[in-house]
Amino acid sequence: DIQLTQSPSFLSASVGDRVTITCRASQGISSYVAWYQKKPGKAPKLLIYAASTLHSGVPSRFSGSGSGTEFTLTVSSLQPEDFATYYCQQFDSFGPGTKVDIK
Amino acid sequence: EVQLVESGGGLVQPGRSLRLACTVSGFSFSNYAMSWVRQAPGKGLEWVGFTRSKPYGGTTEYAASVKGRFTVSRDDSKSIAYLHMNSLKTEDTAVYYCTRIRISDSHRVHDYWGQGTLVTVSS
């Protein structure tokens, strides 16, 4: 099974900051990583799939990149509604999550 | 508008069974694979299992943690996906989400999610 790690596990940021989250896979068998946003009490939302393709309706401040075993999710200018936990996913595995909190 | 609505959660004793349902609208249910993902209290997301669409054999796959105890099924005539949970354990306590999943040899993407239903396994 693929193991996914995320860094950092927690980050504190301000509105307007540029934020980058990294996801590393134990095996480089696919470039198809997806990223999800999860808020407490709400359903997760797909943000990006195939490493860099924005899901329908997702703001363009979200972007993804990477290949092989290292992938990144970037928020170019953090908005109040972006404070949440972010998960990467590949095949059946989800990463442990990165919580983005208000500084 | 794509909508997925879960139902059937609740409090159940260890060793007992429960069936969750996911009622879908806004897309052609029979053409899509459907999946279940759960989140235990204070934990991350965990994939549980999925069923492929009938054109792709309607076959199922499961996480090791639930294999042999949980079964995913579907009723295309009603646009409903089910998660049958047997021999429940306290560690199965979680919010269970139904998802529409796109599957290929190179990827799996959960593109739409329901709001979730809470299953609590406790004596």
Q: Can you tell me about this structure?
A:
The complex is a heterodimer of chains A (103) and B (123). Chain A is mostly beta strands and 103 residues long. Chain A is built from no helices and 11 strands. Chain A has strands at 4-7, 10-13, 19-25, 34-38, 45-49, 53-54, 62-67, 70-75, 85-90, 93-94, 98-102. In chain A, the strands form 2 sheets. In chain A, strands 2, 4, 5, 6, 9, 10 and 11 form a 7-stranded mixed sheet that branches. In chain A, a hairpin with a 2-residue loop joins strand 9 and strand 10. Chain A starts with a strand and ends with a strand. With 123 residues, chain B is an all-beta fold. Chain B is built from no helices and 11 strands. In chain B, the strands form 2 sheets. In chain B, strands 2, 4, 5, 6, 9, 10 and 11 form a 7-stranded mixed sheet that branches. Chain B has a 4-stranded antiparallel sheet with strand order 1-3-8-7, with no helix packed on it. In chain B, a hairpin with a 4-residue loop joins strand 7 and strand 8. Chain B is globular, with a radius of gyration of 14 Å. The mean pLDDT of chain B is 96.
Number of helices of chain B: 0
Envelope shape of chain B: globular
Q: What's the β-strand tally of chain B?
A: 11
Average residue-wise pLDDT of chain B: 96
Overall form of chain A: globular
Biggest sheet statistics of chain B: 7 strands, mixed
Query: Unreliable segments of chain A (pLDDT under 50, ≥5 consecutive)?
Result: none
What class do helices, strands and sheet pairing of chain A give? mainly beta
End-to-end C-alpha gap of chain B: 40 Å
Spans of chain B with pLDDT under 50 lasting ≥5 residues?
none
**Count of helical regions of chain A:** 0
